[in-house]
What we know:
Blueprint: H1 10-18, H2 27-46, E1 57-61, E2 67-69, H3 70-85, E3 91-94, E4 101-102, E5 114-122, E6 133-141, E7 164-170, E8 174-179, E9 185-190, E10 195-200, E11 211-213, H4 224-234, E12 243-244, H5 250-260, E13 263-266, H6 279-292, E14 296-298, E15 318-321, H7 323-334
The structure holds 6-O-phosphono-alpha-D-fructofuranose (P6P).
Binding site for Mg(2+) 1: 95, 119, 121
Protein name: Fructose-1,6-bisphosphatase class 1
Pfam families: FBPase, FBPase_C
Amino acid sequence: MSNSKLNQTLGEFIIENQSSFKYSSGELSRLINSIRLAAKVVNHEVNKAGLVDIIGAAGDTNIQGEDQQKLDVYANVKFIQTMTKRNIVCGIASEEEDDFIAINSQDENNQNKYVVLIDPLDGSSNIDVNVSVGTIFSVFRRVTPVGTPVTIDDFLQKGNKQVAAGYVVYGTSTMLVYTTGDGVNGFTLNPAIGTFYLSHPNMEFPENGNIYSVNEGNYIHFPVGIKKYIKYCQEEEGDRPYTSRYIGSLVSDFHRNMIKGGIYMYPKSSKNAKGKLRLLYECNPMAFLAEQAKGKASDGFTRIMDIEPTELHERVPFICGSKNMVEKAEEFMRDNTI
Ligand code: P6P
């Protein structure tokens, strides 16, 4: 991409690339634009979380049984409102909602063909300690006929059917990083004027890296293969030992590893038989981004985007990042005799 493209605004980028999206009737562009708007609104609140009484548990718990931080609730409402009010999608599923939300899909005039799955504020336990958090989204074309009510089948699609995916990272700067299947591009928000600018065109995972990201506090509960891979990362040999970096915010760990090279792991364990991360609105979108950025994502055995979903909030083990690092970890996972 020529330098002249740098500092292109997100709006200009969407318009310029709309024609390259083979199915676009402009609806997907409007969808990305609505996510852009919601991201700015949520960013405004996240940035002042310490200043107003908007942090701390909202008193409710979500389907995950996790205390809902008020910002979780706020972000969930804002993203759902923004996509609903603009009549862009026909259904939304959210980490914060027990069931999916149908949006006028039974209206025969509703020609909207996309459904969105979202983790409105991932890593929210970091809010109170001022560590970066993120929003993750995944977009599919509905599989049921337009003008009929959406069903669970519209949401339980394999990740390889995604038409778009991305995240917002609310960090030292706020970035929107997304793909529509033609590479990964990162946009940085200028908060002074509320505009996202193309700052990271064609983002790619380095094939190799020297950062591994895993919660080593769970080490004794990990499968043998993961334990052996972690020990491999720590050995003195060649470019090892690697550096251990774990923020506890998937979007932030993923973002750093995509820029510098690295691997993120949330494996299954004796504590979490299927791991912790959710397939539909965390692992699938991050896997789509990883593969579009020439990285890899699996559960240690199966490509994440080939996993057949069975329920909205199902969890899967997740290994994602630089291609050669993921393949090395898979070797250890597959061959317990090493
Ligand atoms: P643990 C945040 O809750 C999250 O879903 C990811 O963003 C993060 O990587 C992981 O869980 C942290 O989980 O068990 O290590 O605190």
